[in-house]
Amino acid sequence: MIDENLLVAQLKNPKSQEQAFRNLMSLYKERLYWHIRKIVLSHDDADDVLQNTFIKVFKNIHSFNEKSKLYSWMYRIATNESITFINKKAAKQNVDISELQFKMAENLESDVYFSGDEIQLLLQKAIVTLPEKQQLVFKMKYFEELKYNEISEVLETSVGALKASYHHAVKKIETYIKAN
Amino acid sequence: MKKENKNRDFKLKKKPKTNVGFKVPLDYFKTIEDGVFAQLNTENLNIKPSKTTFTTPKNYFDSVEDVVFAKLKAEVLTQNNTNTEIPKDYFNNVEASIFSKLNSENTPKVISLKSRVLKFMLPVAIAASFLLIIILNNNSKTVTFNSLASDDIVNYFENDNANFDPLTVATLYSEDELDNKNISTTITNDEVVDYLIEEDLEQITYEN
Fold it and tell me: Which terminal residue of chain B, N or C, has fewer Cβ atoms less than 10 Å from its own Cβ?
């Protein structure tokens, strides 16, 4: 069990920073990767966002105020980086964000790092029809099986609101899948 | 004994206190239905992807730390390389600077007076000086070529004021004219002198 306070202190100390940062990456890289991957869908995009996330963590560790848990803070950065990445990509391609996300879901069919069947593809297409917040809540609850209070810390939203979001998201997805 | 049982019954009938030591999140009871129904509905979905649905390249996670460190170092190098920096507000001012350059190109060119004098005025000045010499040597007020007496011209040439070398004479004619003159080398000097004596010099001068 890693002592989070000690790790943060090592990260803030220039002498121990590099080794501490290696330890931090080694500890969270997979969890953060899968969190990002479920948002941006393709491996290449997830790889870019993961790197940017760690770079941002490294650069901003001095402003981490330790009010929240380190992993929640990192999840928050990863979530924001993923959303920013999608927004920038949409702007670059001069398309609407929802249009881009649908395209990203469709691209999974030819993605060598995706082996889901037809119903899995349908699920991804259903998710991208949701509003941004509902997408995030659904992915964190359904795929990552995070607890509401954990999601609450990351998204800075009350547990009650998260439950309502998740409920609406599930209903919409169910309707979409039945209709398609 | 009976009295004790009576007291216990009384205590149980009382409404239990909920706020002694235990707390629930804000609006917990208002949203509990959503949580339960969402859970029930997700069980109905039953299409959760397996661990092999989304995959990564082989050994991808082994190199993440090195890649991130390489990127961090590259960023530091880029930040230190000040040569590639663009001046502050460059892109805000670039249009104005281009237009000011274009406008300055439309203003007329300033030509040096010295070069203009040397190029055009000098030959005119020489010609004017030559005319002035003739005027001063001749007392008449208005001088034209026609008004010059033949004697004056003859005197001018006799006093060696006009030393024409062959090149100077040649420049008076264009190449075509010289070809058409049928200049013959068979004419002797004596023949030329005789010709000049016999012919009207004034007439020859006009022809030239």
Answer: N
CA distance A63 to A105: 36
Q: Rounding to the nearest 10 degrees, give the CA dihedral for residues B203, B205, B207, B208.
A: 170
Structure tokens at B208: 């030239």
Q: CA B44 to CA B177: how far, in whole Å?
A: 113
Cβ atoms within 10 Å of B207's Cβ, excluding its own: 5
Predicted confidence band at A41 (pLDDT cuts at 50, 70, 90)? very high
Sequence-distant (6+) residues with CB within 8 A of B88 are none
What residues of chain A lie within 8 A of the CB of B47, using their CB? 119-120, 123, 177
**Residue of A21, A163, A174, A149 lying closest to B44 (CA atoms):** A174
- What is the rounded distance in angstroms from the CA atom of residue B131 to the CA atom of residue A106? 97
Q: Which of A73, A50, A53, A56 shows the shortest CA–CA distance to A4? A: A73
- Using an 8 Å CB-CB cutoff, list chain B residues near A143: 48-49
Residue B107 gets which letter from DSSP?
S
Alpha-carbon distance B140 to B134, whole Å? Answer: 10
Is A50 part of the contact surface with chain B (CB cutoff 8 Å)?
yes
Any A CB within 8 A of B90 CB: no
Q: Is the pLDDT of residue B208 over 50?
A: no
Tokens 């992993």 found at? A71
Q: Do B68 and A159 touch (CB under 8 A)?
A: no
With tokens 């039953």, the residue in question is B46
Residue B56 has pLDDT above 80, yes or no: yes
Q: What is the pLDDT of residues B63-111, one digit of tens each?
A: 888 889 888 888 777 766 655 556 677 767 767 777 776 666 565 566 6
**Cβ-based burial of A127 (10 A; exposed 0-12, middle 13-18, buried ≥19):** buried
